[in-house]
Amino acid sequence: MSNKEKVIKLLNKNNGYFTTSDFLNLGLSKTTLKNYLNEGIVEKVCNGIYIDPKLLEDELYVIQLKYPFAVASYESALDILGLLNNIPSNINITIPRGKTVRANCEVHYVSENKYNVGITYAVNNFGNKIKIYNVERCICDMLRQDNDLEQQNRTLNYYFSSESKNIERLLEYAKIFNIYEKVNTIVEVMMKW
């Protein structure tokens, strides 16, 4: 197999992306990578991450490749879950306090003990597997922010009409995030409909 075939196979295996270490693990050199960049075989997305030039860049996926601890949250997670009517104005991620991210996105910080609550995976519009918070966690985050009431109503109406709602989990998360009374009141009202 030629070096170019190895790179194409690597791109196909990784949804059109690879890291410098992925490339070097093929037994190829940084000089070869530079040559492939110059030839247009690959494009550099950011430091250490490359893409098939035929693809559109998935910024959220790139952020998660570079920062594996970043979790899509708030509007970004709601969008992936199909709960937004509009395109999010910013990418929203949540990371543990003490970590840093250098990316064009809105970063939310949480304590380590709350960071893992509700993490799951979903496929986004680009076809990439993204680490996100589940709908119950998104609802708790949304209710803690008290920003967009229209979006809150839309999300809550969807959630409570959904067959996959998990009220027990929602209330459990509400306790963790100290909004139990608020969420319990919403649950009581919505379940009467």
Count of folded domains:
3
Q: What percent of residues are in strands?
A: 15-25%
| Portion in helices | 40-55%
**Number of helical segments?**
10
- Tally the beta strands: 8
List SSEs in N-to-C order.
HEHHEEHEHEEHEEHHHH
Largest β sheet strand count, sense and barrel closure: 3 strands, antiparallel
- pLDDT < 50 stretches: none
Structural class from helices and strands? alpha+beta
Radius of gyration over C-alpha positions, nearest whole angstrom: 20 Å
Report mean pLDDT, rounded to a whole number: 94
Give structural attributes.
single chain; 193 residues; alpha+beta; 3 domains; three-stranded antiparallel β-sheet; three-stranded mixed β-sheet; 48% helix
How would you describe this protein?
The structure is a single chain. With 193 residues, this protein is of the alpha+beta class. The chain is built from ten helices and eight strands. The protein has helices spanning 3-13, 20-25, 30-39, 59-66, 74-80, 112-115, 135-145, 149-161, 167-176, 180-192, and strands at 17-19, 43-46, 49-51, 71-72, 92-96, 106-110, 119-123, 129-133. It has a three-stranded antiparallel beta sheet. It starts with a helix and ends with a helix. The mean pLDDT is 94.
Describe what is shown at a glance.
The chain is an alpha+beta fold and 193 residues long. It has helices at residues 3-13, 20-25, 30-39, 59-66, 74-80, 112-115, 135-145, 149-161, 167-176, 180-192; strands at residues 17-19, 43-46, 49-51, 71-72, 92-96, 106-110, 119-123, 129-133. It has three domains: 3-51, no CATH class; 59-134, no CATH class; 138-192, no CATH class.
